[in-house]
Amino acid sequence: MKLPYIPDPPPxxxxxxxxTLSSPSLPTSNxxxxxxxxxTRLRTRRSPRPLQPLDLTLLHAPPIADGWNAFLGxxxxxxxxxxxxxxxxxxxxxxxxxxxxxxxxHVGILRxxxxxxxxxxxxxxxxxxxxxxxxxxxxxxxxxxKEGEKRRGKGENEGLTEExxxxxxxxxxxxxxxxxxxxxxxxxxxxxxxxxIVEITATVAAYNCVSRFLVALDVGEMNxxxxxxxxxxxxxx
Length: 237
Hints:
Structural class: mainly alpha
Strand content: under 5%
Shape: globular
Oligomer: single chain
């Protein structure tokens, strides 16, 4: 972790100034009085679990932690998406961005939502057909895409349904390219309505934000996991 975690339990008020960024600051008489309310809201959402390392990092900036908690709480609990679709998006973003902390906290929920091990492996795999990385040779990537489409057309979906592949492809496009190809969007529309598409899009966007924050600050100290661990899909469930 590149910053110290705020202690748990946090002080009733938190004050972080440029001169104290190297360590969690002590409460002062000038600290915002609503910090205790913010911590209570975080605890309520996490209950029965304690505050997580992500929370104890965000609490360096309590208003940010409060807005983050409200937004991600809505993404996690207030959409109409199935657990499988939601968690597949979250785990796919984590795999693409190398966010081991995010993967570890969500892969167990994905399995609990009913996705089998082959499906989980496909969500984890960002190489070849299982996940279309866009950093290599364009012709090679297009060949992989065509081969994948051919195999799916023969019913060889390799652990994921056509609907789930549409979600994976959309997540890949948003995460790697930002601008989504029209054919990828139209494929998603064959399975989901307008509200669901907004919810999927917001989930992809939100967890790209989460993963980038986690990796940039190495929250949970998981950036150094080996490539072998990543390939096996190891993580804290």
